[in-house]
Design a protein that fits this description.
about 625 residues; seven-stranded mixed β-sheet; 13 helices; globular
Length: about 625
C-alpha cells in the first residue's frame, strides 16, 4: 500500500503524517527527553486451562513458552476441580487466554463476567477450540447440532485469508500436510474477519469485535504444534488494545556440510547444467552464488564444516577425503574444501559439523572415547589447516546427538558454546530444543534451526513467520548438495530434498538458487529490521535478550515502558482504531499493519519510553 506523507519539524521532533492508515511521530534529535517514570501496575494476562484435558496440554505448554519468549506476565486458573466464581474480578488483566476444550465448566455467571470484561475493552484469545453455549455470542457462532458437535473427519488444509502476521496472506498449507483438523461444526453469526479457513472454505480462525473489546477464536487444535507458537503470541496481540513484545531480532542461515570432503564425482543434474563435477560445482558455482546472495541482502552465514564424510570411528584418522576435491583455477589446481574454508572464515563463521558425518550417538560410536578421539583430532587439524579461531558452533550431523555426545564435546572441544540442532523433532535425539541453555549440559546454549531447504513451501513459510512472531528470529539451514537429492537419485523418500528435480540456476531463473533468493527478498521486504548474523553472534544476542528486563503499563491512550538495556528491540502493536502514535525516547525502525493491528518496531535508548496513541489524524501545523 502506498501512503501519502508529509514531514514537518517542531521542538526536536519530526512528524510523519500518513493520511491512511496511521500517524507516526518520532523524536529525531540527539537530545533525549528525561522522564522520571514509575510503573504502578505491570500488565498481565490470565491463562485458563484444564489439566485433565490431556489433548490440550501441549497447547497450554506452547502458550507458556510463548509467554516466556515475549516476557509476558500471567496468572493461571486450572479448571480441573473448578467450582466457579473465580472470574468475578478480571480488571487486573488486559487479555484472557482460553486453552482447553472444557470451558463448558465455566458457570453462567463466569461467562457473564467474561463477556463484560471483553465488552469493556478487554481481549479474549481462544487458542484451543472449546464451546460453552453461554459464550456463543462472544464467539460469533453456535453449534449446528448438539448431538453431533464436531465436523466429520476429512480433508482440511489451512488457507490464510489475511496478513494476521506480516506476509502471511495467501499462504495455503495443503490437505496432504494438514489433514483432519479437529473442528466444531459451527453456524457463524455476525460480522467477523476470517483469518484462516480449510481448503473447502470452512473458517478455522477468526477475529471479531464485541463491544469495545476483541475476540480471536481458533476452531482447531493446531496451536498444539510447537512450530505454530508465534500464532499464539499474535493471537493475543490481535485481541489487545495495546501489546508490547521485546524481540531478539536476528536471523542465522546455516550451510551444512560445507565445506566438506566433496568428491570429483559427476552428478547428472549438475553436469547437465554446468558440465562440472561436484567439486567444481562447489567452488565455481555454489560458493560464488551464496556469496552473491550474501552481498545482495546483507546475509551472514554459519557453515557446518566436515573433514571426512566417511564412517570411520576409530583411529587412525586422516584428511584424505578432505583433500580429495580439486578444481582448476587460472591453470592451477587447488584443493576445493580447504580453499573455501580459508576464504569463507574472513566474513562468515566456520562452525563444526564433525570430523566425519556420524552423529554423536553412543550406539553409533560404541563409547565416548571414540567420539573424543575423533573430535580431538579434528580440533588439532583445524589449527594446522589454518582455519582460524577454534569453532564456537557445533551442528550435529543428521541433527542427532545424545547426552554422551554432549559430554564428548564438553571434554574434547572446549571452544564450543552453541549447539545448533532442531527446534522440532524428538527430544531424546537432541532435537526439540528451545532457544536457551542445553538441558543435558548448561555449558552449551541452543540456537535451534526452525526451517530448512532452498524451496520454501507454504508450510515452511508459515513456521518461519511463526518463529518471527514468537521471538523475532529466523534460523534456517541448507546444503550445497540439496540440488542433487532428487527422486531420481535417492531411493528413500525421506531423504529427498529436491522433489521437483529443479536445476541450481536454470535458464529462466526457475532453479533452487533463485527460489531461495526470491524468498529472502520477500522476507526482507516484510521484515526489513531483521538482523542477519553469524550463529556465534546470535548466541551473544540471545544471552543479552535473556537478561532483558521489561515493565510496561497501559492507560487510556498511553503506553509506558521501562527496560534495562539500550539498543533493545520492541514491537508495540495497538488496535487499528488508533491512527497515530507519538514516541518519546526510542527510535522507530519500522512500522506497518497486520490484519488486526497497527505496529511500530522500536530500538531503545537508555531512558524510559512513552507512546501516546491518537484516535484521530489531525493536520500538521
Amino acid at each position: 500500500m502506498n501512503f501519502t506523507k508529509r514531514l514537518t519539524m517542531r521542538k526536536g521532533h519530526f512528524k510523519i503524517l500518513f493520511l491512511i492508515p496511521f500517524l507516526v511521530f518520532s523524536n529525531c534529535s540527539g537530545k533525549r527527553n528525561e522522564i522520571n517514570l514509575t510503573i504502578q501496575k505491570s500488565e498481565k494476562l490470565l491463562l485458563i486451562y484444564d489439566s485433565s484435558d490431556l489433548y490440550a496440554l501441549e497447547c497450554v505448554e506452547n502458550a507458556r513458552m510463548s509467554f516466556k519468549y515475549a516476557k509476558l506476565l500471567y496468572d493461571e486458573i486450572d479448571l480441573k476441580n473448578y467450582k466457579g466464581g473465580e472470574l468475578s474480578k478480571l480488571g487486573n488483566y488486559f487479555a484472557i487466554v482460553l486453552a482447553t476444550e472444557f470451558i463448558k465448566k465455566l458457570t453462567k455467571s463466569d461467562c457473564e463476567h467474561l463477556k463484560s470484561f471483553v465488552s469493556s475493552g478487554g481481549g479474549l484469545a481462544v487458542i484451543y477450540r472449546g464451546y460453552n453455549e453461554n459464550l456463543a455470542d462472544i464467539f460469533g457462532v453456535r453449534i449446528r447440532d448438539q448431538n453431533q458437535p464436531f465436523l466429520k473427519r476429512g480433508r482440511s488444509g489451512l488457507h490464510f485469508k489475511s496478513d494476521f502476521i506480516p506476509g502471511l496472506k495467501g499462504t495455503a498449507i495443503p490437505d496432504s500436510i494438514l489433514r483432519d483438523i479437529s473442528m466444531f461444526d459451527f453456524v457463524h453469526v455476525g460480522d467477523k474477519n476470517i483469518i484462516a479457513a480449510t481448503s473447502s472454505g470452512i473458517p478455522v480462525a477468526w477475529n471479531l469485535r464485541y463491544g469495545m473489546g476483541k475476540v480471536t477464536y481458533w476452531n482447531s487444535s493446531i496451536l498444539s504444534n510447537r512450530s505454530f507458537r508465534g500464532f499464539i503470541t499474535q493471537t493475543i496481540a490481535s485481541v489487545s488494545s495495546k501489546f508490547v513484545q521485546p524481540i531478539a531480532n536476528f536471523s542465522v542461515i546455516f550451510i551444512d556440510d560445507f565445506p566438506t570432503s566433496v568428491p570429483n564425482a559427476v552428478k547428472k543434474i549438475i553436469w547437465d547444467e554446468f558440465k562440472m563435477n561436484l567439486a567444481e560445482f562447489h567452488f565455481l558455482v555454489f560458493y560464488p552464488d551464496m556469496l552473491k546472495l550474501s552481498n545482495e541482502f546483507g546475509l551472514k552465514y554459519t557453515a557446518g564444516l566436515v573433514f571426512n564424510y566417511g564412517t570411520s570411528i576409530t583411529p587412525p584418522f586422516h584428511l584424505n577425503e578432505w583433500r580429495m576435491g580439486k578444481a582448476n583455477v587460472l591453470s592451477k589446481e587447488i584443493e576445493v574444501s580447504k580453499t573455501i574454508a580459508k576464504q569463507f572464515k574472513i566474513n562468515h563463521e566456520l562452525g563444526f559439523h564433525g570430523y566425519n558425518h556420524t552423529s554423536l550417538l553412543v550406539d553409533d560410536w560404541g563409547d565416548i572415547e571414540n567420539m573424543k578421539r575423533a573430535i580431538e583430532y579434528a580440533m588439532k587439524k583445524w589449527k594446522e589447516e589454518g582455519l582460524g579461531n577454534p569453532p564456537v558452533t557445533y551442528i550435529p550431523p543428521m541433527n542427532l546427538i545424545d547426552s554422551v555426545g554432549i559430554q564428548a564435546l564438553v571434554q574434547s572441544a572446549p571452544s564450543i558454546k552453541v549447539i545448533a540442532g532442531l527446534y522440532a523433532g524428538f527430544f531424546e535425539l537432541g532435537q526439540r530444543r528451545e532457544f536457551g541453555p542445553e538441558p543435558w549440559n548448561g555449558k552449551f546454549y541452543c540456537i535451534p534451526r526452525v526451517s530448512a531447504g532452498f524451496m520454501i513451501d507454504d508450510y515452511t513459510k508459515a513456521i518461519i513467520l511463526s518463529a518471527i512472531a514468537m521471538l523475532g528470529v529466523w534460523t534456517h539451514f541448507v546444503h550445497p548438495d540439496d540440488v542433487i537429492y532428487t527422486p531420481e537419485e535417492v531411493e528413500n523418500p525421506e531423504l529427498i530434498r529436491n522433489w521437483f528435480s529443479l536445476p541450481w540456476r536454470g535458464t529462466k531463473e526457475e532453479g533452487l538458487y533463485f527460489k531461495f533468493r526470491n524468498w529472502v527478498k520477500t522476507l526482507k521486504a516484510n521484515y526489513p529490521y531483521l538482523r542477519f548474523m553469524k550463529c556465534e553472534d546470535a548466541y551473544e544476542e540471545m544471552k543479552r535478550f535473556d537478561d532483558l528486563k521489561i515493565e510496561y503499563e497501559f492507560s487510556n491512550d498511553e503506553i509506558k515502558i521501562k527496560v534495562n538495556q539500550k539498543d533493545a528491540f520492541i514491537i508495540v502493536q495497538f488496535d487499528a482504531i488508533y491512527k497515530g502514535v507519538d514516541v518519546l525516547n526510542a527510535n522507530i525502525i519500522h512500522y506497518g499493519q497486520t490484519s488486526t493491528t497497527n505496529y511500530v518496531v522500536l530500538k531503545t535508548e537508555s531512558e524510559p519510553i512513552i507512546l501516546k496513541l491518537k484516535t484521530k489524524v489531525t493536520a500538521l501545523g
